[in-house]
Amino acid sequence: MAYLAATIVITLSIFTCYVGTAEASAFRGNDPMSTLGRMSVEEVRATMLDELMSALGNGNRVTEDRLGKIEEALRPTFNSMTKNKHGNLEHSAVRYVLHRLFVQRHGMYVKGLDSAGEAWTGDLSSPTSVLEDLVPSYVLALFEERLKGRGLGLHETAILAATLEHLIHNEAVERLTASYQAHGLSENDQLPNAKLQEVIDTYMVLFIMGKNVSVLTPEIVKEERDGIEEVYPAWPESQKFSHGVMNEVLTANKGDAAFAQDKITFNATAKIVEEIGERYGRWQDVECHDLKGALMKMEEPGTGRVPLKKFYGDAMDGAWQFTESVDYLRELGALDETDPKRKSVIMSNYINSPSNCLASSGLYSVCCLNECEDLMGHIEKAVGQPDATTAQVFEIVTNLPSNTEQAPRSIAQNLRSLLGEVAEQHDGRVPLHGRLFAQWMHHAYPHECPYPHKAGTTKPMTPDEWLAEKGGEAVAEDHEMLYHVTDPPTTDTTAQDSRTAGASKGSDSAIRPLMWTVDEELVVTTTRPPRRLGGTLWVMIRNVALVLVLFSLGMSLRQVLAIGGGKQQLPFSSKEHHC
Fold this sequence. Notes:
52% of the residues lie in helices and 3% in strands. It has a 3-stranded antiparallel β-sheet. A 3-stranded antiparallel β-sheet has the order 2-4-3. The longest helix has 31 residues, at 266-296. The protein is built from 21 helices and 8 strands.
């Protein structure tokens, strides 16, 4: 990835030299803090964009028009985030906002932006991050360092998002170059349409398989192409998609000489694969909906849970998807063990896990679109600030449908009580970007919103990463699946907690113990930790304290009146008055 290293070096040089003035001569030799304060917000934005575009060179994708579209996509989440004293986002908030942007727009999990099972406020250089994750995190650190602790505003965050898109585009171009070379072509060759289709097919094989293009040979590429259908049964549908996009782009640019019939240039082909990348995340999500439909046929109604008995039973009947081992499911965060005798797969966590990502690169993985993002985006837009009252949340969610939840609907009493407890920890308001609200959303929308495990308790990874770390396959052995399939399910509910699943349907009936813990984890930490006392206990303590204060004042007043010899003088009545 030489192009990437060069880009980073150039960007590092510019932002290290840049010290915050709008004059070209001020980019060297001045104290950063002394000049930053003299710049207006508009000057900072303009200079930051100018310098970035100079670093990325001609042909980069960071344009004002593109930035405007990114800003509009970012705005609802940005407005609802907790800001620092400068009205900007802190490092953890920027990571969170950008992660959600790429997941929502492209189904891309950019490495170094995802929390990867850790706290959003944790150390970005923790051992859970692989080496290549450092690239986007490093660029992010450069942006915040340039602002010297002021954080990033909406425009700066959009610039960073556009920069990451540019790096992703560059990586696609490098993959396309490898595809040309695999066919004995150079970037100067003009392709006939038939050869273009072959190159696009090779590009898609490399893209889906996540191959390191720097070590590819024509022999390896041919082997990958010959075996693609065996490892990816949906390859024919993928071909139809990529060929369809190719034909659309060719038709839309038929007046451009670069797209002339049977004389397709490398730059024209690059535009085709760029468009494929833009659309691929949403196209492949159709398969995710098919996966969701298959799981819903096996779930315990309304719970978003599939018993392992049924999960593995489908695999043993020939389904190729449902073969992950119990240990791997646990590490993915897709296993509900609230009742050890009734282990089940959490549908939303499973669908959105790395095991179902189709394409991977040095910068990102293409995974299922998280349906909860649209729901959260609606809530953020309606609330317009970092927290809300329980009444606000109830009103919004009551009228907010999903693919599996109709609206308007009634919200079960146990869910109402749980949200009330969340508010009690935060002085009567519900933070939108914390673990407890995400947990509540999971139970309100069990088929769409993943369950948020406590930081550090899971470590989602791909099957290949699991193999490298654990030394074994992520697939369950036949005897393991057979054990769960033949083991009779437990139906005893006498020991269940009063908090039960199935609440999202408006029912309080006991189905299974509800997966709920009281541990809060905020995306942006506050200066005061959440209160851990229950609401009733807190009110009692406050009222008792008030009674004690009033009693003490009453006793003091009584003593004063007694000293006054029955004249009931006030304490200050004997003092002289001076005009």
